[in-house]
Structures are given as C-alpha cells and as structure tokens.
Amino acid sequence: MQSDERVDAALSALRPRIAAFRLAVSGAMERAKNTLASESGPDQARVALGDFAARLIDPDRFAMISSRFGPLDSVSLAIVERAVKALEALLRAGDEDFIVDVRAGTSAAAAIRARMTALGPAFAAATIVDLVRRRTYDPAQHGLPLEAHPFQKWTVAERRLAPPLVIRLDGRDLDAFELAPLIDGWVRLVLLVAEPCTVAPLARLVSPGVFVAQTGDMKVLERVTDFDGPAVIAVMSGSEARFIHDPRAGSAMWQRIEVTHMPAAQPRKSLGARSAWQQRDDLSHLKALIQQPVLAANPAEVLVAAGSSGSYDPAERLTAWLLDQSTTDGSP
Amino acid sequence: MTQCAILPMLDDDEREFALGDYEGAVARWCPGCGDHSVLTAVEKLLVAEQLKPEQTVFVSGIGCSSRFPHYLKTYGFHGLHGRALPVATGVKLHRPDLDVFVVMGDGDCCSIGAAHWIHAIRYNIHMVAMLLDNSIYGLTKKQTSPTTPQGFKTNTQPFGSFLPPLNPLTTTLGTTNVSFVAQTAEWVPAHLYATLRAAYRHQGFSFVRILQRCPMYTQGMYEAAVRDPGMIELLVHDDGVVAPELDKIYRNRATHDPSDLDSARRLAEDSTRIRLGLFYRNESRARYDLLRKPPKVTSSERIALLNQELDHYAV
Amino acid sequence: MTAVAAPASPELRIAPTVLNRAEHTIEIVSDAGEGAQKCGQIFGAVSAKMGNGVWTVEIIPAEIQPPPRTAEGASGNRVRFGTGPVTNGGDETNLVIAFNEQVLLGRHRLGALASDAIVLLENSWATSSNPDIRSAWDKTLAELSTTSYRIIEVPMEQQCLTIDENPRKGKNMFALGLLAYIYDRSLERIDEQIAYAFRKKSEEVYNRNVALMRLGVEWAAANLDFRIEVPTHPPTEALVVMNGNEALGMGALASGMELCAMYPITPATSVSHYLAEVFSKFGGILHQAEDEIAAVGVAIGASYSGKVAFTITSGPGFALKTEFIGLAVITETPLVIIDVQRGGPSTGLPTKVEQSDLLAALFAEPGDAPRVVIAPATIEECFHVVVTARQIAETFRTVVIILSDANLSTGVQPFPRPQLKKEWLAPELDLAPVKQGQRPYEWDARTGTSPRSIPGQPGGMFTVTGLSHDEGSKVAYGAGVHQRATTMRSRKLAVLQQTLLRPAINGDQDGDLLVVGWGSTKGAIEEAVERARAEGIRASSVHLTFLSPLQPGLKEIFSRFRKVMTVEINYSDQPGDPFITEENRRRGQLAMLLRAQTLCDVDCWTRVPGEPLRPGFIHQAIRDAALTLTGARP
Ligand SMILES: Cc1ncc(C[n+]2csc(CCOP(=O)(O)OP(=O)(O)O)c2C)c(N)n1
Ligand code: SF4
Ligand SMILES: [Mg+2]
C-alpha cells in the first residue's frame, strides 16, 4: 500500500471539492431542520423576526402570513426526520470517507461505486426535503433511498456535486473500461497506484471533456480544482507513460495532451487482466492521440513545446515535421 | 455570493431546448423594426448554446429595444431607463452561475446610463451587453439621441441635430480594462449571429453595438448600406467574428487582429464605410466578478464568525 | 475663573477631595487630527466595561482639516456616563480636556459646558514663541475669566515631550491618563483597549501610547486636588459596546444578507468601512458602486436573483435612489435601504444629526409606492433592526427603509450581547422548480403577498417590469388591472400593520401632555419626561418605531391626553413667529403624518440645531407646553 503522505497530499488538493460536497450536505440539512422548525409556527416566526420585533410584532399573526403552507402530516414529518439523520451521518463523515481502499485482486470500480452509493443519500435526502416543503411528497411515487443511492441514479446536478475520492489500489486492478461509466459531472477520481502497473492504463479514458493524467507529481491535482468537468488522475511511481490531458488547453486533441514521458520499451508481459498486446495497444492509442494533423511530427517532443503555450507556430511545425522525416525508427 | 445547494432536479435535467422553449410574448415592435432581427439571432444563439431558460437572465432598460426580455421565455428584468447595467451587475455578483445578457437602446446606454456604461466596461463582469443603436429615441418618438447623426432632424432638434454623434466604439475602446468590443448590423443576420456567439463565449464584459434600423423614425438611415454591401467593411481575422457565408457578398475586408488595441481604436474612428466585426478582445483583463468572489459559508460558520466579531466589542 | 497653581511637590499634597456623582459628562476637544476622538472612545469603552452606563458622541468639525487653533475646528468626543443606564448625550459637559484655548472657546460659545465645568487646559500656548498665539491665549483666558469654570492649566506638551518628540500625536493618550486618574478607571482595561485601538500598528506604537497614558496618570496624581467617583456596577450580563453604524453593519451580518451596494456618503459611510473589513469572510460582497443610483440598482439586481440585498446611504444619496425604489416596489423585489440621516436639504450638514428624511422615506417617489419605514431608537436597535427588516422585506416582497441618523451612527453605547440565532439568517436559495402554473405575482387577497421565484428555478421564468402589470407580469394598462395591482401592493402594508402591536406608553396611561417621538431622540425624550413628571407635570411619551405602516391604537392613545406634541429634529415654523399663523404653519414631519393619519390636533416642538436634542431643552419645551395647557384652563 501507498505511504500516507500521498493520501494526505491528495486530500489536501481535493479539499475544495470535499468542502463543496460538505457544504451541499450541510445546506440540505439546514433546510431540512428549517422545515421541521417552521412547523412550530409562531415560535419560528418569533425567533426569525429577531429581538427587535419583540415588542412590535405579534408573531402569531405574522406567522399566518409568512407560512405559505399548511402543517405537515406525520408521514412527511417522519421522512424529514429520517432525512436529517441521514444528512447528519454524512456530515460526520471524516476524511476516511473520501478514501477507498481496493482490496488486491478485486474490482476498483465496484469499490468506488459502493462508496458513491453510500455517500449518495445526501442527494436523495435533499430532494425529499424539498418535496416535503412544497407539500408534494408522495411516499408511493418518491420512495427515495435514504440508505443507499447509487451513482446511476444521480441527476446531472448531483453528479456535479459528486464527492471526490482518493483510491488506493494495486496497479494490476486498474481497469479503465470499468471506470468509464463513473466519469461524469464533477467526479474526481485520484488513483494512488501501487506498482507494478501497465504503461498507459488511463489512455483509453482520454476524451474531449475529461481531465486525465498519469503523473508522479501531486501538484497536477491542483489543476483540477476549478476544472469544469470530470477528472481521473493516476499517481504512479514506475516507468509508465506520463501525460496530462487538459480539455482547457486547446481545441484539438493534440493541443490538449502534454506528454512528458513515454516508456522506452514496449510491454512484453501481461499484467493483471491486461495482456501484453493490450498494453501495447494502450500505448499506441496514446501516441495516436497526440498525432498532429497534416504535418505529423514526433508527437512527444513537439507537443511538449506547443502544448504549454497553446500558440502554434507554422515554422516550428515544419521543422518538427522535417526532423520527423529524417528519423525512421520508433514510430508506431 | 450565493452557493448552490444541492439542487433537487426532479424532472431530469438533460433537457434539449428548441426555439419554442425560448419564445415569450409576441414581439410588438413596428413591422420592419431591426429589433426583430436581433431577437431572432438571440433565439438562435440560445438554441445553439442550449442555454437553460431558467439559468438565463435578460436585463434591459426602457425603450423600444428594452422590451426585449418580454419576448423571451427566460428570466427577464425590464427595469429603468438607463439602469440596466447596475441591475445586471447585481445579478451577476450575487449569482455568478447565471448567464446574463443586457439589452439597451442608444439613449439608454449612451445618454442617461452613460456613467454605468463606462463603469461596467471597467468592471469587466462576465455578461453580454447589446447596444441596439437606432440613433434615435424610438419609444418617446424621435428625439435626438447621443448617436443621432449631426444635422438629422428630430422632434427636439427640428433644424437638425446640433452636435456630431458620440461614437460608442471609441468610447468603449478608450475605457480602462475594456475586454470585448464588436460592431454588427441587424440586417446582416449571419454577422449578427456570429458576433453574438463570439460575445457570449468571451470571458468578460462583451460590448456589442448593433446598428439597428428604425423604419418609424430614421427611415432610410441605413438604406444605402443595406442595399450596397460595398458600403460595409468587414474586419476579418481567425480570432475575430467568423462568418464564411458572408465572403461572397461583402468584398471589403480589412484584416484586423482583435488583440491589437491601437489598431482597434483607429478602425473604430468614423469612416466612410461602416466597419463590422470584432474590434477588440482580451481575456486577460481584470474581472471584478472573479476578484469579488467570496467564500461559501455555512450558517454555523456565520454564527461562529459573528460571535468572534462580537468578542472584539465585548465588555 | 479660579486658576489653580499646581502644588510645588507631590509629597506636600493633601489627599484629593473625592466628589461623588451619579453621572458625569466629559469632553476631550482638540484640533482635528490630534486623536481626541480615540481618547474619548477608549474612555467610553472602558467605562462601559467597568459597568457604567455610557453614551459617547463625536464632536466633529465640518471640515476634514479645519485650520488649527480655531473655535470652529473643535474635534473630539463627548462621553456621558453614569451609575445607571445612560440613553442619550445629555445636556452640558462637566469636565473638559482641551488641547488649546481656541477649541475650548468654541465649545464655550456653543453653550456646551456646564457653568461649573472643570477645564483641564493645555498651557504650552501661553509661552509660545509666536506672539500671535500668546496674545490669542491671553485674550481667550480673559474672556473665559468671566465664567465660573474651574480652569486648571496642564503642561501637556511639556510632559509628553519626555516620551515622544511629536507631542501632537501623544497628547490624547496623556489626556486619557488624566481621565483614568480622575475617574479611577482600570488601567489594565485601558491597556487592553489601547491594544485593540492600535491593533494594526506596531508593538512599539502600543508601548509608547501606554507609556504616555501612564504619564498622564502620574501627573494627575501628583498635581490634581480632586477625583470624581461615578460608581460602577459590574455588568451582570454580557455586554458589547459599539457605535450605531457598527451595529447596523453587524446586524446586516446577523441577518445573513450577502450583498451591500453603496456609494460613500457621510454619516453612512462607516457602515461600509466596517463591512469592507469583514463582509467577505461572511460570504458577502460590499460593492462600492459608481453612484447611488447604481448602488441601489445593484442591490435590486442581487435581491431579484436571490437573497435580499441592501444599500446604505444618507439624504442626498437617498434622493438619487428614489426612482429605483419605486421600481423595487412595483416589481415587488425585496430590498433593505438604510438611510443614516444628516442635516438637509442638499449637502446640508453632512456630519450633523437631523430627522428630516421621514417624509421622503415615505413618499419620495412619484406614483403610489407603499413601503415599510422603521426607525431604530438605540444602538442596540440598530443591530437588531436589520434582522427584522430583512425578514419583513422577504415575507412581504417589499422595500424596507431603516432610518438611522448621525446621532446613532457615531453614538457609542453598551448593550446586551446579542444571542445570535440561525433563524435570523436568510435561508439558502431554493432553486427547486416552480409549482406548475404559478404566476409571478399570485396575490393572496388576504395578505397581498405572493410567492417569489428567482432565476435558476425551472418553470418560473418571467420578466419583471416596472410597467403596470397583471398577475402574470404581463404589461397591462387597463384601469382594472392597475387598480387591482396597486391595491395588492397597498394591502401588504395594511396586513403588516395588523401584525403590529400598540406602542407602549412611557409614564401614565393618560394625562395632560403626550410627547411623541421617533428614532434617536428616544432616550432624551424619556429623560425629559421623567424630569417633568418629577416636577408634577402630567406628561407621558410614546416612541414610534414603525413609521410606515404606523403602529395601531395611536388615535385612541392620543385621545387620553389633553395635548399631543411631537418632538423631532427637523424643521417646523415656530408658533410665535410673526409670519406664522395656524394656517400657514409648516409642522414637523411626524406631526404632519400623525395629523393626516389620526385627524388629531398634533402639535410639534422641533429644532434643527445640528446636534442631538438635549434632554434639558426638551424638558423646557414640555414645561412650556404644560403651561399653555394650565393657562388655557379657566
Ligand atoms: C428617467 C426617465 N427619463 C425619461 C424616460 C422616457 N424615455 C423612455 S425611453 C426613452 C428613450 C428611448 O430611446 P433609446 O434608449 O434609444 O431606446 P429605443 O426606444 O430607441 O430603443 C426615454 C427618454 C423614462 N422612461 N425614464
Ligand atoms: S419606433 Fe423604431 S425602434 Fe421603436 S419599434 Fe418602431 S421601428 Fe422599432
Ligand atoms: Mg434608440
């Protein structure tokens, strides 16, 4: 397993997202509590009007104006109370709730899903509270799960508030295809990978809207703080490929990918469920992604230069192409 | 700033919006009024960008043009003559999550609201500001506006407007922290649309002057330009307003890099041809809305903080 | 005048005489920039902390840097403190520390000092190298010698020079030391307070100030033959002490509002100075707009899109905001406006108190624009009023105007520490879809209110407009539509009025004279009424907090008194004036309102002295009014 320093660094980089999730949960809880409190009518009005109103305003009469809805029925009251409990439990969640340890040889995606399912009731609870407040809650129709709320059922808005997760796993268990369905909204998956690992396990996840990185540098995590979209970052320490795909970096794929390291040797051995050929194909995929249009250059080199500035000098492109023509080895 | 709590989106939010989803009341401008074309272009933009109607706010002042929000089915604020920009500023400061568009007339923006205009440029808050410039006060029936051509007869200056018109482009380009200035004409729909799209995508305060025909009071003012594309010069650049469909019709073109402020200012000066295009864009200008983004604070934190404040004053 | 020569050496001194007083009023006056205000503030805060009732007022010259050593340039602080609660600035000053004889003369000519006032006067001027100064000193002291003040010359500069080469900066702390000795204030608490006052300065500054203060104590102990004891009662509950503008700012924080847009204007500005420091910690934005129109526009834009926002201003700025206030009323956009009133019209008396904005607050816009107007009467109320105002604004989708004034804004008073409640805070935005078919103004005919939807709420899209509109916010000019919409907006006030309680009567429930006041004059009026009652005059008072709508029961309360008279700090024609008749007399603003609203013959006694009304003057007005009553009696 990884050293805890990496976990701490990852958590601290994800702090703003964790805070956003917590804030959302506490906001929902406050509204739930307000819903319960407002049931007391004049008392609620008296408190909410403030001390200034004490000798000036009759809270009973004021409450008649300020409460738009009639009293809650017992079923609704009970469900809001349950929602409050669920939210309270989630609010108590410590950092460990944002860390997933994947047991060696088991599915990482399944572990992540399970954690999301456990944190998901925050959303269900918020929805319930709002339905109740509007007096439109119908137990038959809105039997929303307060114990478990799987990711498949999260709405777009909920996916944008997804809790970030730090996942400790064995390189062998990293399967991009399994993770793909979980990439949406503002999901943040930080994979702390224990060696050995395949060379380009995340290459397959690169798509126009997803921030994907294989890196040894924790600082990369900070780049996704404000990124408006999902992000998957594998933190690794072996000789795997190192790259960052940042959707903000350009309009064409090759402009968005920055490759800082390509493994010298082609994989020859299978690892976990991935055969050697599959691993080679991952790598080919990555190389294909950074191929420039029209003038194919040695991708790794040129892109490191062009990717950072985003500007793109035709002369530079031509030189790169000429250089590429003179070398014949290594190209896939 | 207000935080977005968990949004209980009950009906699913993967909606797709068609033109009809943005259509409000039936527009009541005069037939042939240029405002109709602007509305059409804006609706097209809303569909193309799939803006959520409930997340979109159109703020306007008072004037014919300021009726705009009523004709859309987004949120709208039809406020006071000259005061659209402060309202839009308030909306955007409090709710940065909303997309804000501002619609103003030339009297609205350049006369009674001129102070707000200058300062809005400097604040550079992310929003699209459209000046629907018909060079006249339309709603109040043909009075001289700041952009009325010199000598043009109006009801308040019946022997011809006394002064040369104010140039909204140079004014805008001369203001500190300007970040996006474009000019387009409502009778060139492709250009209008492309300009609005560029404005919408700009991160900052996008000022778009839209030359607008008012057949009621300034009939003929742009007739020649409408009939003769030769009177128009398009500013072209890969980073500018790109509307290839205009290539064949508008042959006068000037290549202008919108990052070049000096050149933008020169081009914005009055000339014999009407210049349409993106004069200036700079996304690295200071943005007041970003500088003023406060942290999100829960109610318990607020209470705790206020108690700390009270401690300073405790006896 | 009895100038006292300081005893030659401390050892020879006899123990000082201790004068016992239930209350005392002190002043520290100097040229602007000499820090007298800081001295007064610290003294006031420490007295409050030790358990005196305290009311501090600033003495502010009209100009920022008036010429030094002028009678008009007096700048400083006035602190009235007593064993019991102190609710206003009181009458005359009992003890003055003056940094030069000219500012003293200024205060003397204004009649600010009691006839037996003790004066501690910096005497370095007497030996100035400048002959003009020496002769001014001589002339002034000659003028003052006709009074019965007890003037004690203090070598402040000479003393301060032993610690600080720039005595102009250090005298205020030396003066603080004099006061600390005279009134036996806790030096530890003073140290604490100095540390807080100079929290943004270096350690060295703190040390120097403390040293200067202690020097003052030592000098006083060695040279003064008196001390004054104003017994303290250590407070039994937790107290806070602040000025009215700080209280307004904190009240805004307590109300959970998140945006304040303003344009600087005295005496409102210091609210924004306070908020500028802390608001962003609370998730708030203090926006300094390009002008007052923009300020209120920004606040309305923010309110329209979410939590109720507010703007703060004073008279001239309020005038500029009126068009937007009308817009907020017709669009039913909740909004809180704080007007810290000053003397008017126009630029008027920028730093001085007046209560002249009442009718403007009620009626400034063309068209019918009903809105709520509330006036806090104490510093404590300045804090709490904001919470209530926001709540009313939101509940009724209406504009709430808070009328404070320059007296409250700079007055400093201790009050019970607010017990903060989460319920006071504006709730988080609710962006849930709007109920199907709900219209933008679904007026409930029983209350005039309607649910508000904000951008972000699916299904609630509509365009608010300042044009006459129907329930659907559809522009409609029809007679019926406008009548109904106007009725609904008015109904909100009627319904709010029905939730209000009758005002309490201070004094007997019936009698000869009822004094009616509003806003910051409460303490002075009640003190005056008490004094009059002690003389056997059958006077009572009522203080109105809600000015729009008015609290219920006024007509009935008025009917129990032979005469009803408002006391206000605004202009009214004086009945004795040869130009003035019963018919052409212009009356005080509250009096006008009450006459219209109750059809009672409400008289008024109003003054615009550019300073808070002194209880003594009100007392005299009550006596005069009572006299006309008994005179009218056969
Ligand atoms: C404070 C104020 N002053 C004047 C008016 C009258 N008024 C309404 S619209 C308008 C001018 C309209 O001209 P413009 O802004 O160019 O808009 P257009 O009608 O041409 O689109 C004026 C003067 C007003 N509504 N409010
Ligand atoms: S008056 Fe002019 S601007 Fe107004 S609607 Fe008619 S054509 Fe359009
Ligand atoms: Mg116009």
Spatial strand arrangement across the major sheet of chain B? 2-1-3-4-6-5-9-7-8
Span of the ends, CA to CA of chain C: 48 Å
CATH topology of the largest domain in chain C: Pyruvate-ferredoxin Oxidoreductase, domain 3
Q: How many structural domains does the protein architecture of chain B include?
A: 1
How is the biggest beta sheet of chain C arranged?
7 strands, mixed
Which topology of chain B does CATH recognise? Rossmann fold
Oligomer: heterotrimer
Overall mean pLDDT score of chain C? 94
How do the helices and strands line up, and which of them pair or pack?
The complex is a heterotrimer of chains A (332), B (315) and C (634).
Chain A: H1 4-37, H2 42-49, H3 59-66, H4 74-91, E1 99-101, H5 108-119, H6 121-133, H7 156-160, E2 165-170, H8 176-179, E3 188-194, E4 211-215, E5 231-235, E6 242-245, H9 253-256, E7 257-261, H10 276-289, H11 299-309, H12 314-326
Parallel strand pairs in A: 1-2, 2-3, 3-5, 4-5
Antiparallel strand pairs in A: 4-6, 6-7
Helix pairs in contact in A: 1-4, 1-6, 2-3, 4-6
Chain B: H1 34-49, E1 56-60, E2 75-78, H2 84-94, E3 99-105, H3 106-112, H4 114-123, E4 127-133, H5 168-173, E5 180-185, H6 189-201, E6 205-211, H7 223-227, E7 232-236, E8 253-255, H8 261-268, E9 274-281, H9 288-291, H10 299-312
Parallel strand pairs in B: 1-2, 1-3, 3-4, 4-6, 5-6, 7-8, 7-9
Antiparallel strand pairs in B: 5-9
Helix pairs in contact in B: 1-6, 3-4
Chain C: E1 17-20, E2 23-30, H1 36-50, E3 53-59, E4 75-82, E5 93-98, H2 101-109, E6 113-122, H3 131-144, E7 150-154, H4 156-160, H5 167-182, H6 187-197, H7 203-223, E8 226-229, E9 239-243, H8 244-255, E10 259-262, H9 269-278, E11 285-288, H10 292-304, E12 310-313, H11 315-331, E13 335-341, H12 358-363, E14 372-374, H13 379-396, E15 399-405, H14 406-410, E16 412-416, E17 463-465, H15 479-499, E18 505-506, E19 511-518, H16 522-534, E20 539-544, E21 546-548, H17 554-558, E22 561-568, H18 589-598, E23 602-606, H19 615-632
Parallel strand pairs in C: 1-8, 2-5, 5-6, 6-7, 10-11, 10-12, 12-13, 13-15, 14-15, 19-20, 19-22, 22-23
Antiparallel strand pairs in C: 2-4, 3-4, 9-16, 14-21, 18-20
Iron/sulfur cluster binds at residues 29-30, 33, 35, 64, 134, 138, 214-217 of chain B.
